[in-house]
């Protein structure tokens, strides 16, 4: 099925038409800077522009940096508070005239890796951690997603969450070396491992491209690998999610 996959991020809103069966991009990936402030209307206008520029009419899958429950935004850690409790799927459907299926951005990236990437056909528990402005997580058991885990917000010690301590943005803002940041990130992974005992941990987002710079700081029992699909993971996973829900809706 052909679907327009969209990934809403802190600095860019990206989209491409995806073959949801193969995970391949059928068009160039288009990136438009995230508007500032990134209010619901401003983001919807950029999504509508993307749809227009791709000449798209059809289902859209949208990955978004928040817990998304049945299309509705439930958290606002790194996004405009105006999104809180908004029915994002309906809001974007209004702006584009297309049916929209929304999900958490890390869940989308994890879907791509379990369907087509480093965890394809993997039996066991996979934890995907996306490293960027925030710290996103996605949890799978034998390829089935347990959505909205939001484990970047666990406390490592009083008043300090994994995201505040070890997101990609923190490395840049605090001018940490890869080793210094790697030690912090390792602490977060150790905590997650103690709670979830994943068999495989996949790292996505910008910093995963630099895995060789901090791999020696990581000390957990699970196998740790960078994701295989880097730039497109969010777009592809959003499209796969939309294809699955659109198919279910059509058979109802
Ligand atoms: C949000 C998550 C999101 C992650 C990565 C966190 O701040 O709470 O929903 O997946 O950032 O964007």
Give the topology.
Layout lengths: L1 E7 L3 E8 L4 E2 L4 E4 L6 H14 L6 E5 L3 E2 L2 E2 L14 H9 L3 E5 H12 L8 E7 L3 E7 L2 E3 L8 E3 L2 E2 H5 L1 H6 L4 H19 L3 E5 L6 H4 L8 E4 L6 H19 L1
Bound molecules: beta-D-glucopyranose (BGC).
Rg on CA atoms, Å: 17 Å
What is the arithmetic mean of pLDDT?
96
Helix content: 25-40%
Ligand species: beta-D-glucopyranose
Structural class: alpha/beta
Largest β-sheet summary: 6 strands, mixed
Q: How many helices does DSSP assign?
A: 8
Q: What proportion of the residues form beta strands (DSSP E)? A: 25-35%
**Spans of at least 5 consecutive residues with low confidence:** none
Q: What is the 3D form? A: globular
Annotation, overall tally of beta strands: 15
Give the N-to-C terminal Cα separation. 18 Å
Helix/strand order = EEEEHEEEHEHEEEEEHHHEHEH
Account of the 3D structure:
By secondary structure, this protein is an alpha/beta fold. 35% of the residues lie in helices and 26% in strands. It has helices spanning 40-53, 88-96, 105-116, 162-166, 168-173, 178-196, 211-214, 233-251; strands spanning 2-8, 12-19, 24-25, 30-33, 60-64, 68-69, 72-73, 100-104, 125-131, 135-141, 144-146, 155-157, 160-161, 200-204, 223-226. The strands form four sheets. Strands 1, 2, 3, 4, 5 and 8 form a six-stranded mixed sheet that branches. The chain is globular. It starts with a strand and ends with a helix. The model has no long low-confidence stretch (mean pLDDT 96). Beta-D-glucopyranose binds at residues 65-67, 75, 77-78, 104-106, 130, 132, 134, 136, 150, 152, 163.
């Amino acid at each position: 099925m052909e679907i327009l996959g969209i990934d809403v991020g802190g600095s860019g809103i990206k989209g491409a038409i995806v073959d949801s069966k193969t995970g391949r991009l059928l068009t160039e990936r288009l990136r438009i800077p995230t508007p500032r402030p990134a209010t619901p209307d401003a983001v919807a206008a950029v999504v509508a522009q993307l749809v227009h520029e791709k000449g798209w009419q059809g289902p859209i899958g949208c990955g978004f940096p928040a817990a998304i429950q049945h299309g509705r935004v439930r958290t606002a850690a790194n996004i405009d508070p105006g999104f809180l409790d908004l029915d994002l799927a309906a809001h974007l459907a209004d702006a584009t005239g297309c049916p929209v299926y929304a999900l958490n951005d890390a869940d989308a990236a994890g879907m791509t890796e379990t369907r087509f990437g480093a965890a394809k056909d993997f039996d066991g528990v996979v934890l995907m951690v996306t490293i960027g402005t925030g710290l996103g997580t996605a949890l799978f058991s034998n390829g089935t997603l347990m959505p909205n885990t939001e484990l970047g917000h666990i406390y490592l010690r009083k008043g300090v969450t994994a995201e505040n301590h070890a997101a990609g943005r923190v490395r840049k803002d605090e001018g940490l070396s890869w080793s210094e940041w790697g030690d912090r990130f390792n602490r977060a992974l150790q905590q997650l491992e103690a709670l979830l005992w994943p068999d495989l941990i996949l790292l996505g987002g910008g910093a995963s491209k630099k895995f060789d710079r901090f791999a020696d700081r990581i000390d957990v029992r699970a196998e740790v690998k960078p994701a295989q699909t880097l730039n497109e993971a969010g777009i592809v996973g959003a499209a796969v999610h939309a294809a699955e829900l659109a198919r279910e809706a059509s058979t109802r």
